[in-house]
Amino acid sequence: MRKIAAFLLVMMFLAVGCSPSKNVINAEKEAVVKDEIVISAGVNLVAGGFDPTAGYGVWAPDIFHSHLLQVKENNQLANDLAASYDISTDGLTYTFKIRDDAKFADGHPLTSEDVVFTFETTKSKASAADLTMLDSVEALDASTVVFQLKYPWSPFVFNLSEVGIVPKHAYNETYGDHPMGSGAWQVAEFAIDQKLILVPNEHYYGAMPKFKKVTILKLDEDAALAAAKSGQLDLVLVESEFANTQVEGMKLYKMSAMDAFVINLPTIPETIDSSGKKAGNNVTSDLAIRQALNIGINRQLITQNALNGFGQVTYGAAAELPWSNGDKFEDNRVEEAKKILEDAGWKDTDGDGIREKNNVKAEILITGRSNDLARYNTVVALAEDVKKLGIQIIPKSAPWSECRDARNLPTCWVFGQPNPIEFYRYYDSSQIGVAVIGNPASYTNPEVDGVIKKALAATNSDEANKYWQEGQALAQRDVPYLWIVRPEVTYLVREGLEIPSLKKLPTRGQGISIVENMNDWSW
């Protein structure tokens, strides 16, 4: 299969016109300096749909467009298009001054009219870019934009960082496959699910890319490794279980991320919800089960078995995030976990190694996303580890459409955003059943709801962060979610390709976040 894949790859290169990167030989240093590279970094980079008004850029980096604000060093918000901004004391009015040197890839100046058009268009669409709190947006002049909110919403600055600015004069229904933003890169050629060729935006106001051309290919793992071994790829995303593969001329590059693998543990008994679907779970609805899992599992061992050790164990939102409380505790407390279960009436009366209570076995079906091997492997490793507690987990690989909609079954989710609104979406009772990410644990705690309400209404980030942290501490007692590990994203990188640190935790983005600072890459 590997030989066939490698052959097909060669044919693909010939068919799409990709050639090895052009080299300039430095005779004095006898070194090769490239101004073109070829990479393969997951499926999403070549999936199309690069339209910020439809949600592109919310979950992963958008290298085509500028943003008013961006999450930069130390996971703090910083100005991008914004030269300055002001928030009214009531938290309802945001006034932005934008820089005057921003241009789209066609040379057309970016003005406040483009900002207004972008946010009005985004608001009119139902997408991951949530602007339900926005009442109006107005251009006072060419460089001044005013956002008016319906109610105070402290995470609004993060909402602004998620929406790239599109050109009013060039936007149309096919824009998603032919973006023309004011970011560092522009699309030179695109074939959906095959290849994406990028060249620098010569009008970009920031640091200009060092490479004249970047070719991004969609390849399966076998073909990608074959291409890397033959010297055709300069960077390739690899699953953690293959990360130690030796490829001549390439080195392992690990990228930490804020995303965590988290299992939702439905907190209510099984029932039928208002939409006629099953919700809740008769095993995980018992607090004792959730508490025992939380303190009894060995996260480090699970990380080693599931991810080949490429990850950091986690107990909640990444401590590096300004709004996280960074809670950490000792796990693998097996005897203490067993006592919690015994005291709650979970006993193995028939000697089969699985506890039961009121004729209900401590048996939990947990799904793992079928197109994300790392998630499924984590569920498998968790299942092996919890046997020591007398709990049986049955791993199931399933398509994401099935996983995310089964509110009666735990599944392996990916939690991790710089925006604290994530805590609201997963822990606030008002979010139960909302869209596909609304509180999949069916968790209700009036005290937590009250603190979240205070965080949302706060008029400065310090006040909001205090409430977000308080909410996390309260919710952790109820264990609606089992936080396990933040996987490292692993790549093989050609020797000579220099990739500077982002100096922050990016989202995992199934591998594509590596390109966030691609304009700073060099050879």
From TrEMBL:
TM helices/strands, residue ranges: none
Record's signal peptide: 1-23
Alphabetically ordered keywords of this record: Signal, Transport
A GO biological-process term: peptide transport
Gene3D superfamilies: Dipeptide-binding Protein, Domain 3, Periplasmic binding protein-like II
Keyword Nucleotide-binding: no
Subcellular location: Cell membrane
Domain of life, per lineage: Bacteria
Membrane topology reported for the UniProt record: Lipid-anchor
One GO MF term attached to the UniProt entry: peptide transmembrane transporter activity
InterPro entries (alphabetical): Peptide/Ni-bd (IPR030678), SBP_5 (IPR039424), SBP_5_CS (IPR023765), SBP_5_dom (IPR000914)
The keyword Acyltransferase is annotated on this UniProt entry: no
One GO CC annotation: periplasmic space
CDD domains: PBP2_NikA_DppA_OppA_like_19
Similarity comment: Belongs to the bacterial solute-binding protein 5 family.
Protein name, entry field: ABC-type dipeptide transport system, periplasmic component
